[in-house]
Each structure stands twice: as structure tokens, then as C-alpha cells.
Amino acid sequence: MGKCSISQASLGETGFSYTLSLINGKYKMTILYTLMEFGVVRFNEMKKYIGEISYKTLSVTLKELEGDQLVHREEYPQIPPKVEYSLTERGKSLIPILDMMCEWGEKHRLPSRREQNKADI
């Protein structure tokens, strides 16, 4: 990363900006993390695991990730319908970044209030 003059630079032309355009969104990183951790995941399993996400938001976000070729959707012709999601090779290429985020979080996590209260007792 070389230093250059900000007056001659544009954030929109950086690799950072492109990467952010793919993963930016309230639940995109959460979905990518879920697929990294569990491999192949069905829609309702993911909804239950994430918890606070609505069905519509999960569906829209998965379609966006699929459109960006980060997530693969496999639909099985059966009743009831079965749909599974997994990371594509392109999506798997984000795993080192996700791993680094997990490591950073484990290293720098501040104790929760409950953990602090237990320590005070």
C-alpha cells in the first residue's frame, strides 16, 4: 500500500471499495460466516441460527450474494421444496478474511457485563 495524494485519489477505484460493495449490508457478513462455519445450510436452518433476521431480508440478501457469485443456491425438486446454500469458490476465497476477523474478535473482545459481574464477586 503506497501513500498517494488524497486529492488525486478516489475511494471508488480501490479494491477495498469493490470488496466492500460485495459484503456491505447488515447481514451479508453474518451469512458468509454461517456458510463458512457450517458448509451447506438450508434456509430455515440459517434463519434459526441468525435469529433476528426476517425471512424477507434473508431471502433478499441470499439473492444478492448469489448474484455476486459468492453463494451457491441448490434447489431440489421435491415436496416440500428443499433449498441448500453454500459458498462458491469465489465466496470461499473470503474465508481467510473471515478467519482473521474471528481471531481479532477473540483477541480483542471486551468482557460482557455478566462476565465482569462474575469477576467482581
UniProtKB/TrEMBL annotation:
Occurrences of domain HTH hxlR-type (ranges): 4-113
Matches recorded under SUPFAM superfamilies: Winged helix' DNA-binding domain (SSF46785)
KW Lipoprotein (keyword) present: no
Entry-linked InterPro entries: HTH_HxlR, WH-like_DNA-bd_sf, WH_DNA-bd_sf
Keywords, in A-Z order: DNA-binding, Transcription, Transcription regulation
Matching Gene3D superfamilies: Winged helix-like DNA-binding domain superfamily/Winged helix DNA-binding domain
Superkingdom assignment: Bacteria
Cytoplasm found in the keyword field: no
One Pfam family per UniProt: HxlR
Protein name (database record): Helix-turn-helix domain-containing protein
Naturally occurring in which organism (per UniProt): Enterocloster hominis (ex Hitch et al. 2024)
